[in-house]
Each structure stands twice: as C-alpha cells, then as structure tokens.
C-alpha cells in the first residue's frame, strides 16, 4: 500500500511538471550588488525587477556584496551569476592584477550603463589652462584612498605632470578649494555634479580639457580608461566641449551564463522599455546610449548572447571584444 502511494505521488509530481511546461520553468540567478547606500544599488534592484517582469523564465535576485572588485571575485568563484562591475576591476581581473590572482579567461561583459568621466577642475582665475599647467599647482587628486585618487595618480605619472598634490578626504578637499588653500581638484561623474556645483558657488571654475595625445597616451597605458568627450553645459557658468578619459560601471558575468538568457537580457536592457526602466531608477541614464557605451568602454569580452543581439541590431562589435 505504501509503495502504491509513493508511486502515485511520483506520478502526480511528474504530471504537474509536464503540465507546467518549459515556459514556466524558472532560471534562478543571483546578481552581486554594490553597497545599499549607493545609487547604483537602487539601479540594480530596479533593473532586476524589470528583467524579472520582462525576460520569460528569469528569477533574478540581488545580493549586496560591495564594489566591483568584491563582486567580480565572487563571480569568478561561482558564488553569483552576474554582478556590478567597473572597467578598472574588469581590467585587473582579465590581466591578473591585484587583488585578483591569475588572469581570468571566463569573465564576460553583459553591458555598461554609467560612464564616469574624470573632471579636472581648477580656479578660473588661475593661469592653469591645460593639464600640463598643473605642474607645481596645489591640487587634490581625489578623495584620499579612493579609486579616483589611484587613477589620477596613474594619469599624472604617465603624462609626466607633477602638481603639488594635497591629499585629503573629499569634503576636506572641497573646503580647501572654497577657502583658497588649493587651486584645483578632481571629481568623477556626469553633469551637473553637486560637489562641483558647491565649488563653483565660491569660486569661478574651469574644467580642463585633455589633448588628443594625452587621451591616447593614457588609454594605451591603462586600458580601462577610455577617451571621452562631454559638455558640462552652463551648470558652472561656462560652456563648451571637454575632452577627458572615463571609467564606467556596468554588469559582468562569465562564459557559464546561458547564451539565450544573455541575449534576452541584452534585448531587454537595450530596448526603449529598458531605457524607460533605467531612467526611473537612474536619472542620468536618459542621456546615455547604453549599447554604444558598452562597445566603447568594455574591457572583458562581450558575452556571445550580447554579441548576437548587438549584431542583429546593426552594431559593429570590435574583434577585441569577441571571446
């Protein structure tokens, strides 16, 4: 009798599974996220909800882990299926640089959504008109101990420029500029930027533009810093196009992610509906061509599913971004 009950139960389970069909099968995936205090965490939660409602069979959860390096380490250990990424952390993983041990040949790019241009800001009343004019100038290279500070140190070194560096926390550097103890600073981000606006409220400012040669020299030395142009507009009392270099923030994965799932994620993200969903949780996304940004800044190869979608949509994928 007990054997019969077990067989009936197994048969019922099989029948339910068969009736459910493949369309209802759920692919449960985990996305590593940055700190919950970050606006990018809000973006990840919002986009995960959008993808779950758009991509059939996807059940994507968000796990708070930390920055791009921590998330990518967890990804390469197989603890998550995709995660927050920066071009600098991808570059380190692909090339086996600290904190990663050994090169990664399985890391793949899904997409990038947030460019982070490097803004070199100086007092407009100074004689500093270019990066090379920063020699000997009291200048803050970014918040003490931040990735911004490390990146600016690398940029200045490769260009052979030696300001009189004043290292300080971000708020202390802003105070020093407002009170004329330094003549310039660096701030990453799109415009308008609240930090730069506070600086401009106390002193007229100038955002320095890199020469094409400087852009090329930096990007050749550090593959995660891509040439970029931006127009800050009239937010700080001046207009005009500025040339610089930028990093970017996005979502990475590995070669283990199913090709169809990666394709459907790319299709959803790069669509008009995807743009609307992005802007709802990340307002600067309105002015960003996510697909083109991905092609411009990606360091790790694109996932084959992403490549298939982009090529079908008419984009040309560089050979260097193909696995």
From TrEMBL:
Protein name: TAXI family TRAP transporter solute-binding subunit
Pfam families: NMT1_3
NCBIfam families, per the entry: TRAP_TAXI (TIGR02122)
Domain of life where this protein originates: Bacteria
PANTHER family noted in UniProt: SLL1037 PROTEIN
InterPro entries cross-referenced by the UniProt entry: TRAP_TAXI
């Amino acid at each position: 009798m007990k054997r019969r009950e077990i067989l009936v139960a197994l048969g019922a389970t099989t029948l339910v599974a068969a009736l459910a069909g493949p369309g209802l099968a759920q692919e449960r995936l985990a996305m590593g996220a940055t700190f919950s205090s970050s606006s990018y965490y809000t973006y990840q939660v919002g986009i995960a909800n959008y993808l779950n409602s758009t991509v059939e069979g996807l059940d994507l959860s968000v796990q708070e882990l930390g920055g791009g390096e921590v998330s990518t380490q967890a990804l390469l250990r197989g603890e998550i299926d995709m995660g927050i990424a920066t071009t600098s952390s991808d570059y380190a993983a692909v090339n086996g640089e600290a904190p990663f041990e050994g090169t990664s040949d399985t890391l793949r790019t899904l997409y990038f959504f947030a460019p982070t241009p490097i803004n070199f800001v100086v007092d407009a009343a100074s004689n500093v008109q270019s990066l090379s004019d920063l020699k000997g100038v009291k200048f803050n290279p970014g918040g003490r101990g931040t990735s911004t500070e490390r990146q600016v140190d690398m940029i200045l070194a490769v260009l052979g420029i030696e300001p009189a560096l004043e290292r300080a926390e971000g708020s202390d550097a802003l105070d020093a500029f407002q009170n004329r103890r330094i003549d310039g600073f660096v701030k990453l981000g799109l415009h308008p930027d609240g930090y730069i606006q506070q600086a401009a409220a106390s002193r007229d400012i100038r955002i320095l533009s890199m020469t094409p040669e400087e852009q090329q020299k930096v990007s050749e030395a550090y593959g995660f810093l891509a040439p970029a142009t931006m127009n800050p507009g009239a937010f700080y009392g001046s207009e005009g196009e500025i040339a610089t270099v930028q990093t970017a923030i996005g979502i990475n994965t590995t070669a283990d992610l199913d090709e169809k799932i990666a394709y459907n994620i790319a299709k959803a993200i790069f669509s008009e509906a995807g743009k609307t969903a992005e802007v709802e949780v990340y307002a600067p996304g309105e002015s960003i061509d996510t697909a083109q940004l991905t092609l411009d800044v990606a360091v790790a190869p694109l996932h084959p599913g992403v490549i298939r979608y982009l090529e079908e949509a008419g984009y040309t994928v560089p050979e260097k971004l193909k696995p």
